[in-house]
Amino acid sequence: MPMKSERPKNARERSRLATRNRLVDAWRELALAQPQQGATISQIAEKAEVAVGTFYCHFKDKESLTREAALESYAKLIAEIDRLRVNDLQDRREWTRATIEAVVTFAEKNRKEFMFLLQLAPLTTLEGQEFIAQWRQFWFEQTAQILRSEMQAGRLTLDIDPALAAHALVAMVLGLLQWWMEDPVRAPREKVVQTLTGMLLALYRDGPGSLS
Questions:
Q1: How many CA atoms lie within 13 A of 14 on its CB side?
Q2: CA atoms within 13 A on the CB side of 194
Q3: I need a surface site. Which of 45, 49, 101, 115 has the fewest CB within 10 A?
Q4: Helix, strand, or coil here: 156?
Q5: Distance between the two ends of the chain, CA-based, in angstroms?
C-alpha cells in the first residue's frame, strides 16, 4: 500500500515538494483536458511554470510522474476507508454503506484525482498499464473474495460467478460515480449512496446480516 511521506523538515525541502506537487497537478489537469493524447513533458512543465530541466529533477519520465500521481490518489482513497473505519464493521448493511460512502467522499474531495484515475490507461505506456491493471485486480479480487464467501454461506439471491460479478459490480460503481462526478447536479449525493448501497445489498437473501 502507498505510504505517507514525511513532512518536509526545512524550506528547501518544502520548496521541492511544492514544485513536485505543481507538476503532479499540472499533469492531472492536462490529462483531463485532453484525455486521448495526454500531454508532453514540455507542456506539463509549462503548465506547472517550471523549466523542463526541473521536471527531470523530480521525475525520470512521464511514466514515473503518472505512477506517483496514481499512488498518491490511491493512498487518499485508502485513508478515507480507514478514516470511516470500514474494516471494523461487522454488519453487512453498515459495511456496504460505509464502503460506498468512503469512495463517494474520496471522489467529492478529490474530483480531479478521481477522474484522472478512471482514465489512466490511455495515458501510459505498456508498463504503466500493467501497474493500473494490478490495482484494478486488487479491487476485483477483494470483491470476488467477499462474494465467494457469501455464496458459500448461502446468503446470495443469485447463482453467479464471483469473479465475473466482481468485475460487473466494480464497473457499475465506478461508472455511476464517473457519470455523477461529471455533473453532480444530476442527482443528490445521498441518492447516489443509497442507490449503490441498495443495489449491492439486493444480492443478499436475508437482509442486513453479519460479515462473519
A1: 3
A2: 5
A3: 49
A4: strand
A5: 25
Task: Map residue 18 onto helix, strand or coil.
Answer: helix
Q: Which residue has the cell 442507490?
A: 195
- Residue 84: CB partners within 8 Å, gap ≥ 6? 98, 101, 102, 105
Q: Does an H or E element contain 77, and which? A: helix 62-83
What is the predicted pLDDT for the residue at 138? 74
Contacts of 173 by beta carbon, 8 Å cutoff, 6+ apart = 100, 103, 196
Q: Are 55 and 44 in contact (CB under 8 A)?
A: yes
- Tell whether the model's pLDDT for residue 53 goes beyond 90: yes
Looking at residue 2, its pLDDT comes to 45
Among 18-22, 141-145, 205-209, which is the least confidently predicted range?
Answer: 205-209
Q: How far apart are CA 139 and CA 169, in angstroms?
A: 10
Give the dihedral sign, CA 181/184/186/190. Answer: positive
User: Which pLDDT value is given to residue 3?
Assistant: 44
Residue with the bigger pLDDT between 38 and 118: it is 118
Tell me the pTM: 0.73
Helix (H, G, I), strand (E, B) or coil at 91: strand
